[in-house]
Design brief:
The protein has 10 helices and 13 strands. With about 350 residues, it is α+β, with helices and mostly antiparallel strands. The protein has 2 domains: about 180 residues, Aminopeptidase, CATH 3.40.630; about 150 residues, Aminopeptidase, CATH 3.40.630.30. Strands 1, 2, 3, 4, 5, 6, 7, 8, 9, 10, 11, 12 and 13 form a 13-stranded mixed β-sheet that branches. Helix 2 packs across helix 6 and helix 4 packs across helix 7. It is globular. The termini are far apart. The mean pLDDT is about 90.
Length: about 350
């Protein structure tokens, strides 16, 4: 597509007509309705990340594609919301032929980095450095059918989790679950628990970054049925003991920020919450819960299948592109080496946990 067919705007400059077209193109692609590729998410990121932009691809003045991104120094671009976005790419009319390097040139980018490029993004897939497993839970047949399957594959998980819920109720008070909770105190508790978990495990505290904190608050107050934040809380007595804040579309829920009160850790309140959440989500029309890439034992237990997402970068020839490559490739290669070697992964995890213990005293 020629450069004159690309118009660059801020996300908040897109109006209702552009949102409608964006979602229509997304539906035509037959990709899952992942909320991270919705215009509401792009607009929310734009409010906390001033360099967020959307390239609108046009034919005869009609939008035929949308490419959300962020532009950094030296033309170093990144997927919009990189670091917290679980699905990335462009929304294109089926059949559109796209040269990603020409698109980057139109956007004034020397490179575009992604770490959760969704499958089906054909123009960008040749630039992927690694494929990652993205476990999901399919609920299109309902919660009871899902738990029937879980009994066959992990019967101990269901039995033990329900026993722990009964013990939690005996020791801490009646267990109550709220699927769509508007309790801002519970959201603040979730952030505290999650920040403590990040520090304890030696990882960067996402909620110490103002833009992520602000993004969650914006999405928590959203009311667009096609893309909004969803806070779910498990209470024991009058106290929240576990919570999850995710992003949802009409049919897909992204498992985003789960956390629990460690004072009740022996009861596995996070697992109790997740089972309640799956039941309520299935009743609410959610057909798939995207657990997100990244290893976790509970994901292996609960998943019904895996999708593929991709990490990599599109880099244009030239000095600025070379600088971007030199700046990112060593760190990406190191992460790739750790992920692909279980012993290195275990060692890295232990080192992070030790660093976390030192940090938290």
């Amino acid at each position: 597509m020629p450069d004159k067919g690309v118009v660059i705007v801020r996300p908040d400059e897109l109006g209702p007509a552009e949102h409608k077209t964006w979602r229509h193109l997304r539906a035509e692609s037959e990709a899952p309705e992942n909320p991270f590729l919705d215009p509401v998410f792009a607009t929310a990121v734009g409010r906390v990340r001033p360099q967020a932009r959307v390239a609108v691809l046009q034919e005869d003045g009609t939008p035929v594609g949308f490419f959300p991104y962020e532009k950094g120094p030296l033309g170093h671009g990144r997927a919009i919301g990189l670091g917290v976005s679980d699905s990335q790419g462009a929304v294109l009319r089926p059949g559109i032929r796209l040269d990603p390097r020409r698109l980057l040139a139109a956007c004034g980018l020397a490179a575009w980095e992604f770490d959760n490029l969704e499958a089906g993004q054909r123009p960008f897939l040749p630039h992927a450095a690694e494929a990652l497993a993205d476990p999901v839970i399919d609920l299109d047949e309902g919660y009871e059918q899902y738990t029937d399957r879980l009994r066959r594959t992990s019967s101990g998980f269901l039995r033990q989790t329900r026993a722990k819920e009964r013990r939690l109720a005996r020791q801490a008070g009646e267990v109550r679950f709220v699927y769509d909770c508007r309790d801002l105190d519970a959201l603040r508790a979730l952030k505290r628990w999650k920040s403590a978990q990040y520090r304890r495990t030696g990882r960067r505290d996402r909620f110490a970054q103002p833009w992520i904190n602000g993004l969650v608050d914006l999405l928590a107050h959203g009311d667009d049925p096609d893309c909004r934040g969803l806070l779910s809380v498990l209470y024991a007595g009058d106290r929240p003991v576990a919570a999850h804040f995710g992003l949802r579309s009409p049919t897909v829920l992204s498992w985003w920020f789960p956390a629990y009160d460690r004072d009740h850790g022996r009861h596995s309140p996070g697992s109790i919450l997740l089972l309640h959440l799956l039941r309520a989500a299935a009743a609410d029309g959610i057909r798939m819960v995207d657990l997100g890439s990244g290893p976790a034992r509970y994901k292996d237990t609960l998943k019904t299948r895996e999708m593929r997402v991709y990490e990599g970068a599109v880099i244009r020839p030239g000095p600025a592109g070379a600088v971007c490559r030199l700046g990112r490739e060593p760190a990406r290669a190191a992460r790739r080496a750790v992920r692909n070697h279980p012993r290195l992964a275990r060692l890295a995890r232990r080192m992070l946990e030790q660093a976390g213990r030192l940090r938290t005293g």
